[in-house]
């Protein structure tokens, strides 16, 4: 065999080897892409209401497809910080009563005793979560165990359904700054064969003679 032919065979084998490695790598990347987690950074937000300023910062979501690969399940881990700067509120607990001016509590109060900051997520299956979504089910829906930060919750959602997941809350018994910070709270969704969407909400209810309820929504994001 000539030197030139030998060199040519070696080059050909080397090229074939590189091609085979590249093909394997591409296959691995493709498989990984199909099952990869998706990190979604979300913008900060702010809302002014009567006697309160709500701020939402450092919000993000990490989305994973279901290991069952059936298209009906997915999981999202959410993180963020919600705070309320409250200028005026009755001190202490006013009681759960709904009554006229001068009575304990106030009309339309749902906090059962004190002004309150609560935050969580609205999750929908094959539905766009509009700004009036909170009126569909109130500010509190499905709660994590004990409302604890860092827990997890499972949701079963059918087409057109919207559910609420309260991450945590904090009673406001005097003026000041209150905040709720959470990290990697897990929301597992099952039963939604179509697209799913979520967005954060933060609600501050101020009780007393001049009742107010202020809601700050986060940016909607797809959960696949």
Report on this model:
With 224 residues, the chain is α+β, with helices and mostly antiparallel strands. Helices cover 17% and strands 44% of the residues. The chain has helices at residues 3-35, 134-137; strands spanning 38-41, 45-49, 52-65, 74-86, 115-125, 142-143, 152-156, 162-172, 176-190, 196-206, 212-217, 221-222. Strands 1, 2, 3, 4, 7 and 9 form a six-stranded mixed sheet that branches. Strands 5, 6, 8, 10, 11 and 12 form a six-stranded mixed sheet that branches.
Relevant terms:
single chain, alpha+beta, six-stranded mixed β-sheet, 2 helices, 12 strands, 44% strand, disordered N terminus
Describe the SSE topology.
Elements: H1 3-35, E1 38-41, E2 45-49, E3 52-65, E4 74-86, E5 115-125, H2 134-137, E6 142-143, E7 152-156, E8 162-172, E9 176-190, E10 196-206, E11 212-217, E12 221-222
Parallel strand pairs: 6-8, 7-9
Antiparallel strand pairs: 1-3, 2-3, 3-4, 4-9, 5-8, 5-10, 10-11, 10-12
């Amino acid at each position: 065999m000539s030197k030139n032919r030998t060199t040519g065979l070696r080059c050909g084998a080397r090229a074939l080897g590189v091609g085979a490695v590249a093909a394997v790598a591409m296959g691995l990347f493709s498989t990984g892409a199909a099952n990869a987690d998706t990190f979604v950074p979300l913008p900060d937000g702010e809302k002014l209401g009567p006697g309160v300023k709500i701020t939402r910062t450092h919000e993000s979501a990490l989305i994973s497809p279901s290991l069952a690969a059936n298209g009906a399940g997915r999981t999202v881990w959410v993180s963020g910080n919600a705070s309320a700067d409250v200028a005026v509120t009755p001190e202490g607990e006013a009681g759960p009563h709904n009554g006229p001016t001068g009575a304990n509590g106030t009309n339309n109060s749902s906090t059962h005793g004190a002004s309150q900051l609560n935050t969580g997520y609205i999750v929908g299956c094959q539905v766009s979560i509009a700004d009036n979504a909170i009126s569909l089910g109130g500010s509190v829906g499905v709660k994590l165990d004990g409302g604890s930060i860092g827990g997890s919750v499972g949701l079963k959602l059918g087409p057109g359904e919207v559910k609420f997941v309260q991450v945590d809350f904090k009673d406001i018994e005097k003026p000041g700054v209150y905040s709720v910070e959470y990290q990697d709270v897990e929301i597992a969704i099952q039963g939604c064969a179509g697209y799913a969407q979520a967005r954060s909400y933060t609600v501050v209810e101020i009780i007393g003679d001049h009742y107010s309820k202020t809601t700050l929504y986060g940016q909607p994001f797809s959960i696949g």
